[in-house]
Amino acid sequence: MSHLDNIPSTPGKYKPDKAFRFNSSAASSSLSKLTLYSTLFLSVLLIFLLLLYSPSSKPSLRRHLSTGSHRTPLSLSHKLIRKSARPRSTTGNTVLVTGAAGFVGTHVSLALKRRGDGVLGLDNFNHYYDPTLKRARQKILEKAWVFVVEGDINDKGLLEQLFDAVLFTHVMHLAAQAGVRYAMQNPGSYVHMSKSANLQRAIIWASSSSVYGLNSKVLFSEKDRTDQPASLYAATKKAGEEIAHTYNHIYGLSLTGLRFFTVYGPWGRLDMAYLFFTKDIMKGKTITVYESPDKGSVARDFTYIDDIVKGCLGALDTAKKSTGSGGKKRGPAQLRIFNLGNTSPVPVSTLVSILEKILKVKAKKKVVPLPRNGDVEFTHANITLAMMELGYKPATDLEEGLKKLVRWYLSFYSRSKKKSS
Ligand SMILES: O=C(O)[C@H]1O[C@H](OP(=O)(O)OP(=O)(O)OC[C@H]2O[C@@H](n3ccc(=O)[nH]c3=O)[C@H](O)[C@@H]2O)[C@H](O)[C@@H](O)[C@H]1O
């Protein structure tokens, strides 16, 4: 068992594979993993730093701007930023998407752009998993005229400049980046700075189904208790939801949290089971399938990426403006939380059978008890609220979604192989 298995966070189940040039040093530190996943919401707060007037000197945007692996001259970058962020019509939104080169971030950015919204991406291209996959996503984004600024959401100077350059209407916060350290050292500064915030954008951000933790009541409803997280990852997501409440209450920020249920699909994350199962089955490598303590199936409400994207857009379209200004709440602001699941849980053993059928390869399986690392036995979303308020309606079942995933996987990695040989 690798040390990753001991980390009580859901993403910690993946064993790095050299074939993907996974950065094992980045992934191997439990502290950095915890930090990485414990900053989701605190990072959101940093977005507000750019809304502040600050006399501090602003570092050049130049060092943050790149297209692919090439640096771009400053004048050109400003042009790209403005072009990328400009909506097709005056009624379109202007959205900053953090984590734009990530799995969900890429799909959401493309969907927003496709329908005519202006989109500017921000991503630090960290090495949690193969950055070449992120670079490939970036190329797809560039083809669609979505420019991704390379930088950290915790870089106050950079954010100030981006917000100076573009009048965003919304922030779609999908990045989970390190940066909590500063907040932990100096938590008061957030509160202090937020007091002087001016224009506040509506924020839509990624929470997780993991907040339900040991909740045994099915289906998982937004009204259910979420005070029994089973992993530190889940605990930090839950903390994000609590902080959202506080900032909404004190400062009138419009905040919508989306609890994603095991999102899968083309361009997916390499640390997730459906993807490394696909890879290992094809290679004839043994996969480890977890079973619950009573020898029952572990199940997930696997949700296809296109459905998640529709939920994200629905959340953005129904988000109301923040009511705060200059650090003062002018009135009650919107605070929402939604489950985005498929509401059709599938046992992991069935996931494997579907993959075997699509790949036409028999998997070598080792069935082992669910590790005591914070994994939960099942998830099942009640999506009534999202259906009613966001018009959310998942339409892709696991078999159909996995077919699309495998099609993408085969073409992407055969192309990558050809390039490297
Ligand atoms: O909904 C979420 O909020 C989370 O979804 C995802 O977590 P999970 O649902 O746990 O997905 P994932 O690891 O792919 O395991 C899938 C299934 O395979 C089982 N599993 C896993 C590994 C293995 O080797 N064997 C196995 O049986 C395992 O027991 C599980 O039943 C995101 O990673 C997480 O970041 C977060 O977004």
Describe the structure.
- With 421 residues, the chain is α/β, with parallel strands linked by helices.
- It has a single domain (3-263, 303-342, 379-396), classed as Rossmann fold.
- Helix content is 40%, strand content 16%.
- Strands 5-4-3-6-7-8-15 form a seven-stranded parallel β-sheet, with helices on both faces. It has a two-stranded antiparallel sheet with strand order 1-2.
- Helix 5 packs parallel to helix 6, helix 5 packs across helix 12 and helix 11 crosses helix 13.
- The protein starts with 23 loop residues before the first helix and ends with a helix.
- The structure holds the ligand O=C(O)[C@H]1O[C@H](OP(=O)(O)OP(=O)(O)OC[C@H]2O[C@@H](n3ccc(=O)[nH]c3=O)[C@H](O)[C@@H]2O)[C@H](O)[C@@H](O)[C@H]1O.
- The site of ligand UGB has 18 residues, from strand 10.
